[in-house]
Amino acid sequence: CLVESAEGDMIEEQVVGFDHTVAYLMPIRRLGGLFAGAKVIPLDGDSTVQLSSQWMGRVVNGLGEPLDDGMPLKGGDRVSLEPKPINPLKRRPVDTPLNVGVRAINGLLTVGKGQRIGLMAGSGVGKSVLMGMITKNTEADVIVVGLIGERGREVREFIERNLTPEAREKAIIIAAPA
């Protein structure tokens, strides 16, 4: 939805919850100038992004907008950010091991093709180094790396310190810093 600010600007928001007659909104881009009783305008349809091979090697935000200094992303298929859930009984099983290039993971914590993994740990224990190793060494055509809640400087450090140019070419990095 759009919410009209005190200055008359339209601020894009997402409804994330309800409590009787109150709607809870989360700002998409910025927060400021809102007030109780502000005019809310509903938007039709799902949020979408246009996906194409141009995303390869790029760093984008959670809305698919480039964060790097590359050309604007154009063309491609428009895809909903809120897809319909797939019937779990219709999903293919994860039954083929994926070589992530880290022998300890391949041998003890095997990852399967099509599987998502999360890497969570305390500060300074090597998450970025491990994620860089996986990104560089995984035998895959495309690797999507989500840097969610990282500090802004850590996003840049991850890319510059942990990814080779070859690894970056096959990666799509989605960064939503804290």
Description:
With 178 residues, the chain is an alpha+beta fold. The chain has two domains: 2-41, no CATH class; 48-86 and 116-176, Rossmann fold, CATH 3.40.50.300. It has four helices and eleven strands. It has helices at 103-108, 127-137, 152-162, 165-169, and strands at residues 2-4, 10-19, 22-27, 40-41, 48-51, 59-60, 77-80, 97-98, 111-112, 143-148, 171-176. It has a four-stranded antiparallel sheet, with no helix packed on it. Helix 2 (127-137) packs across helix 3. The protein is globular. The two termini are 23 Å apart.
Write the layout of secondary structure elements.
Blueprint: E1 2-4, E2 10-19, E3 22-27, E4 40-41, E5 48-51, E6 59-60, E7 77-80, E8 97-98, H1 103-108, E9 111-112, H2 127-137, E10 143-148, H3 152-162, H4 165-169, E11 171-176
Parallel strand pairs: 6-11, 10-11
Antiparallel strand pairs: 1-2, 1-4, 2-3, 5-7, 8-9
Helix pairs in contact: 2-3
Beta-strand content: 25-35%
- Helix and strand sequence: EEEEEEEEHEHEHHE
Largest sheet: 4 strands, antiparallel
- Global structural class: alpha+beta
Strand order, biggest sheet?
A: 3-2-1-4
Count of domains: 2
CATH architecture of the largest domain: 3-Layer(aba) Sandwich
Looking at CATH, the homologous superfamily of the largest domain is P-loop containing nucleotide triphosphate hydrolases
**Large-scale geometry:** globular
Averaging pLDDT over every residue, what do you get? 90
Helix content: 10-25%
What is the CATH class of the largest domain? Alpha Beta
Tell me the span between the first and last alpha carbons.
23 Å
Which radius of gyration do the C-alpha atoms yield?
A: 20 Å
Question: What is the CATH T-level topology of the largest domain?
Answer: Rossmann fold
- Contiguous helical run count: 4
Q: Could you list the spans in which at least 5 consecutive residues all have pLDDT below 50?
A: none
